[in-house]
Design a protein that fits this description.
Two copies of one chain form a homodimer. Chain A is α/β, with parallel strands linked by helices and 516 residues long. Chain A folds into three domains: 3-121, Winged helix-like DNA-binding domain superfamily/Winged helix DNA-binding domain (Arc Repressor Mutant, subunit A), CATH 1.10.10; 134-139 and 391-500, Aspartate Aminotransferase, domain 1 (Alpha-Beta Complex), CATH 3.90.1150; 148-386, Type I PLP-dependent aspartate aminotransferase-like (Major domain) (Aspartate Aminotransferase, domain 2, 3-Layer(aba) Sandwich). Chain A contains 19 helices and 17 strands. Chain A has helices at residues 3-6, 8-11, 20-33, 46-53, 57-69, 112-121, 148-160, 164-168, 177-189, 205-216, 231-239, 256-265, 287-299, 322-326, 355-369, 374-385, 388-415, 440-450, 479-500, and strands at residues 42-43, 73-76, 80-83, 134-135, 199-202, 222-227, 243-250, 253-254, 268-273, 304-307, 332-337, 349-352, 420-421, 429-433, 452-453, 455-456, 469-473. In chain A, the strands form four sheets. An eight-stranded mixed β-sheet of chain A has the order 5-12-11-10-9-6-7-8, with helices on both faces. In chain A, helix 3 packs across helix 5 and helix 18 (440-450) packs across helix 19. The longest helix of chain A has 28 residues, at 388-415. The two termini of chain A are 36 Å apart. Chains A and B meet through helix 6, helix 7, helix 8, helix 10 and helix 11 of A and helix 6, helix 7, helix 8, helix 10 and helix 11 of B.
């Protein structure tokens, strides 16, 4: 297949008005429709096509996403992107004597939304981390503070007590009463006054996002998200058939002028936001801007999902949540989780919403998994009841604040020449920016060689480009590893910087995905 | 509102060709469209309207379901069914000076699929069970066999060992390697040869159904299900926008003539089936008919989801699963769970599918909850590794077989005059049939008064009517309670039978839902 020939309409008219990715989409769509590209034809890997056309790889990735969303191509993990069977046409599978088939033709059966998710996930870079590699890439907290001892004592007590049968049975879809009540008491301390009919225990906050999406989204509905935002939220909205419309962000959080502009033009079902210690940018929205956001959301009828995933990891004076500021107005669905400040393996979080909305969320929860794991709920309820969570928070806040200091210092010492960043007020991520023209993806192969990895920032964007950002997790490694890891990053930056004077597009290894 | 007047076109033409529920739908739709029914107008409860029109309540329920699916009405749990805001029209919410709103108008924001689920769930009868009531209603196993002692020893070992940090961290989306490997070994004994890339650990089999639906279903796609079938599967398919098309069943399982007829007319994305010890009918499909079903499914390109939820509770010689008989043909997605034979609170099950299908399922799993609770997975892996699950199965199979005997005897002794049933070969449910004209819903209020409850059968049907069936769980209560419960059921039947000579439609209590 001569791809350059097929894509000539693009390369000949680089100056045309329509964005590059749409021009690529259009060329490939035409070729599929008029038969120049056959069913099951493999498209070139995005980095190859990008090299061929001398454009950014993320532009090609975006074009492929669009083609997948339109049902024209599909991806196999690890194999590539292929032209889809047309659902309107009979498949090419040989028919049996009776006129049927002798095997299911699965590609005809996959949903469009799952194809879109597949296409988006292809964007994730992934790394074969060698032994000894220091990772700043993940979204996980530190193993060393996991509450093994406390949980052991709680589980022993639970299983030996008269509560044992309860541990093994179904709980209500809305969550175990003991945990609901403990979480409500904890939220009250944070300024969120909610009643028992306003809370839902969920199987981790990923499920919370999914439940909200499923409760609100019809196919092709619009969800507004900060740009950049949490990668798996983008995937979950796509899995629910939503179109994500990006709202740009600044170092002080979401841009309200952009939000107002978009919200007044587009009928949106939801604005998904992380006002405190944002993923990936680490930014925090001021109280005044929180109030303004709420006002705009009400005026333009855009419900808010406030994801307070690291609200408990605050290293300065905490700000009131959107939910707190919203009072009883019911604009906000609020989400919290134990996954970052405590440990992710329990898969327990919570949603808080006005009673009418909550009734619908609880119903949808049943269709997803009936109810959340009972043992985890009872362990966490008891952990809260004993006051151990508050103790734990003090411990990790102190430890993580120190790690933040160490990483900031190390970045200044080893990478000042190339990286700029703002110190976050809480959470787990530093968002660092390379000089113009540098690519965090290209840097990654140099970093791997030096034994350090991070998340390239472009995967978190809805919009394309933005290759110069990187996300660094500063809570997972101890001070020594942070310092050594950033030192390695500095070496990688030096090597990358030197190489830029020689080659344009170094390759990097793609393998099993390890970024969240 | 004069409902009789509004619905005149129905009552005047009872002999018209179109089904009654569609005629009701049509009348109400017209009244909404021409403004006779205003936004937020409450529709009469289905049992009232049924009484008014002198038709079966399930027909009205079906009409309301259809209206909800069309986005014309919505339901509030416990409050009733209301005419929806029209999304096309501006809402009635007062605007602010700036032309916006000062509160979110939530009913405008809910998804159609969640409205449909809401409407379906309204069908569930529910019961205020007094203390001392004997319940045959639930889908749960017996508390007395829950493995508290074994789990206690396993958890203690896990948390004290070097595995402790692992217990608290994320596992891979596909499940913990230890559990995947133990489940694969266990499946091998059952004649299912699958590789590690063909298995996915899910957060209970409800999630399994949801993942399969999300991976395959586009809005308005068709799913075939046995009629009757598992209630929450109907809800989950609806939550994914599917239209369920019923395939009728006989005492020996799904009717293959009907399946062939439907599958050749309709392009279906899935056939959801429980070939062994079906919920709710308890029926089992013979080996010959399993093979025929597989052949028809391949010929007509209908993937199968085989839900083997109680396959381990077999009281005779077990039959090979569809997955076993299908070999390497890839027609079947297979599902198993620990929830019935062991305990439901862990929320752990598994899916097995061909590698291509599995890759997509694993991806979709991430968008739903990232991964399943780690502690539960490690407990169950160790429980299997120690051979304790096999021991447990022998224990419960013997116990439950005896309970089945007791219930069959008790039914013959106390209810022979009214109830007919087939003895199931395994599982947990007896499906009993009342005489023509009797209604299991009407009987329920008499049963409650006597201190016994069960699941009325009509909720399990996609098609309307079928009011004469009831589902009895025979594994949850001990022999004494079973005998006493069925004796009470006999008394209720006598009272109901007497009352039928006097009144037509006794009311029954609707409250918190307790049936699964």
């Amino acid at each position: 297949m001569d791809w350059l020939e097929l894509l000539k309409p693009i390369t000949k008219h680089k100056d045309r008005r329509s964005p590059m990715y749409l021009r690529i989409t259009q060329c490939i769509r035409s070729a599929i429709e008029d038969g120049r590209l056959a069913e099951e034809q493999r498209l070139p890997p995005d980095r190859e096509l990008a090299k061929l056309l001398d454009i950014d790889r993320s532009t090609v990735a975006r074009a492929y996403d669009q083609l997948a969303a339109d049902g024209l191509v599909y991806s196999h993990v690890g194999r590539g992107t292929f032209v889809h069977h047309s659902p309107a046409k009979p498949t090419s599978q040989p028919r049996t004597a009776r006129g049927g088939y002798d095997r299911i033709v699965w590609p005809d059966k996959f949903s469009r939304s799952s194809a879109t998710v597949d296409a988006i996930v292809q964007r994730q870079p992934a790394v074969n981390a060698q032994a000894g590699t220091i990772s700043f890439a993940a979204g996980s907290p530190t193993e060393e503070f996991f509450p093994a001892k406390d949980f052991e004592s709680i589980v022993q007590e639970l299983l030996a007590s008269s509560k044992a049968p309860e541990v093994f049975g179904y709980t209500q879809p809305e969550g175990h009463p003991a945990l609901r009540s403990e979480v409500l008491a904890y939220l009250k301390q944070q300024g969120i006054a909610a009643s028992d009919e306003e809370i839902l225990i969920v199987s981790g906050s990923q499920q919370g996002i999914d439940l909200v999406a499923r409760t609100l989204i019809n196919p092709d509905d619009t969800v507004l998200t900060e740009d950049p935002t949490y990668f798996w939220a983008i995937c979950t909205f796509a899995a629910n058939g939503a179109r994500c419309v990006p709202v740009s962000t600044a170092p002080d959080g979401v841009r309200l002028d952009v939000f107002e502009n978009v919200a007044s033009r587009v009928e949106a079902k939801l604005f998904y936001t992380m006002p405190s210690f944002h993923n990936p940018t680490g930014s925090t929205l001021s109280v005044e801007r929180r109030q303004k956001l709420l006002q705009l959301a009400r005026e333009h009828q855009v419900p808010i999902l406030e994801d307070n995933f690291v609200g408990d990891l605050c290293y300065t004076t905490p700000l009131p949540s959107l939910k707190t500021l919203d009072g009883q107005a019911g604009t906000v669905i609020y989400q919290g989780t134990f996954s970052k400040a405590l440990c992710p393996g329990m898969r327990v979080g919570w949603l808080v919403a006005a009673p009418d909305v909550m009734a619908r969320l609880r119903l949808v929860k049943r269709t997803c998994d009936l109810s959340t794991n009972t043992l985890s709920q009872l362990i966490l309820a008891e952990y809260l009841r004993r006051g151990l969570y508050q103790e734990h928070l003090q411990l990790v806040q102190n430890a993580y604040r120190k790690r933040l200091d160490v990483m900031c210092l190390a970045l200044q010492e080893h990478t000042r020449q190339w990286l700029s960043f703002d110190r976050p007020q809480g959470g787990m991520f530093i968002w660092a920016k390379l000089p113009p023209g540098y690519s965090a993806r290209e840097l990654l192969s140099f970093a791997q060689r030096e034994g350090v990895i991070y998340s390239p920032g472009d995967v978190f964007f809805i919009s394309s480009g933005n290759s110069e950002y990187m996300r660094l997790n500063f809570i997972q490694q101890n001070a020594e590893q942070i310092d050594e890891g950033i030192r390695r990053l500095g070496k990688a930056l030096q090597a990358y910087s030197n190489s830029r004077k020689r080659v344009a597009h170094p390759a990097y290894v793609v393998a099993e995905s390890t970024f969240i």
